[in-house]
Amino acid sequence: MASALRFNCQSFNFSSRQNPAPARVDRFQILCSNLPHSAGAEDSQCIKEENEARLVLLEKYGNGTSKRYILESDFKIRTILEDGLPQTNVLEDSHAVETDTSLSWLPKIIKDFVLPAGFPDSVSDDYLEYILLQFPTNVTGWICHTLVTSSLLKAVGVGSFSGTTAAASAAAIRWVAKDGIGALGRLFIGGRFGNLFDDDPKQWRLYADFIGSAGSIFDLSTQLYPAYFLPLASLGNLAKAVGRGLRDPSFRVIQNHFAISGNLGEVSAKEEVWEVAAELVGLALGILALDTPGFSSSYPTLIFTWLGVRLLHLWFRYLSLSVLRFNTINLKRARILVNSHILQQKVPGISDCNKMENILVWEKFLRPKITFGVPLEELIAGKKPGFLMRILLKLYAEEKYFLVVSQARTEFEVFVSFKEGATSLSVLRSVWQSYWLHQNWSKSNDVFSQLEQSLIELNDRFDDFLLQLQSTGWETNQIYLKVPKEISIQEPPHTA
């Protein structure tokens, strides 16, 4: 089923929205028409040929829907919303057709949750078989863990006062239930945020400790409210499990960074030696503190001691992560490198750039603000959407993205939409252009002349930027700047 959407804009402005689905914007007048399945073949063919003749762009969404933008005049663009991509399309080529048939029966939302992005091309051929066999392996392991927990609790005296083993079993159920609720946190983190850790492992490793510290507060509260042991302990385990879900993948990325000789197994084993040695020392000091007269019986003393040690722990964690020197380029480091190149015509070295990288700050708080993956209708909102589209098509004919500067806000903000075939290098080029515009932007000048000038500067200076990156040791073949997959724009051949 296809719906025709017609919009007329009242003013030239841009606005940002995070929802990647085809959105109906309030400032547009919408007229919908449906194409019935029973329509005659001849009429349908005429409509199809008419649409294709005036088709300008096709915007595809991650949920399988698409939107055709049909340029009718400078003042009017007609769009057609489609539930799914057609079998044949004048814009498609052989590379756009999905060739993956494995697990085709599995809903896309579940595949995205349980499998790596880009599966199966992003992993080795034996990945799926290994994972499917690991699942029952882990199930049987946790069954054994549940049964053993009951024996351990009984051995330390749980249930001995009642003279039966029922109390030990009940305690084991509560204890394992607490672990199960906590495991939900790891499930959610791994499924929903698995694509974050390669980009910024230092940040997420530090956040893991912050969240784990919050979980410990719930555990400490069980002594004050023993009747609420299960909910408090479960919340504590949930928070700590979320922290662990952030910690383990981030730590693996950091270990891989250390293993420059391909010796990841040895690096991991030696890290275990250091960790176990620290664990033994920490346990010994903790037992010594608990054995101190009056310490364990004084709850305030316990709390303040924990707080002081925990703050010291977080400080050491921050220092340890700050000394890491990654030679790969993520978005934070890309911003630092680009800004330096535009202002000083040179890029900082690996050590200096990593020192300048703020591992605490969220990307959305960095300036200038750059919003990636913006729907096309956000870029052409204005009195003459058709005219704006023609200008953007001409300006960005040689680029794999469209970029505009928001005119609706006082704060400088850039919106970027990516075309099909965009790569990490395309994202890096858009960042360079955004920073040049931020440094040279003037509201009094013509918007599109400034965009044109920024593209001239980009073409003149970007190659020098890449050469400087290579000469200072940056790994330009590993640029962790991901192209948003929620929205992609496909151009017809004649617009190139």
UniProtKB/TrEMBL annotation:
Highest taxon above the source species: Eukaryota
InterPro entries documented for this protein: RUS_fam, UVB_sens_C, UVB_sens_RUS_dom
Residue stretches making up the Protein root UVB sensitive/RUS domain: 104-342
Domain Root UVB sensitive protein C-terminal: 347-483
Organism name: Perilla frutescens var. hirtella (Perilla citriodora)
Coiled-coil positions: none
Similarity field: Belongs to the RUS1 family.
Official protein name in the record: Protein root UVB sensitive 5
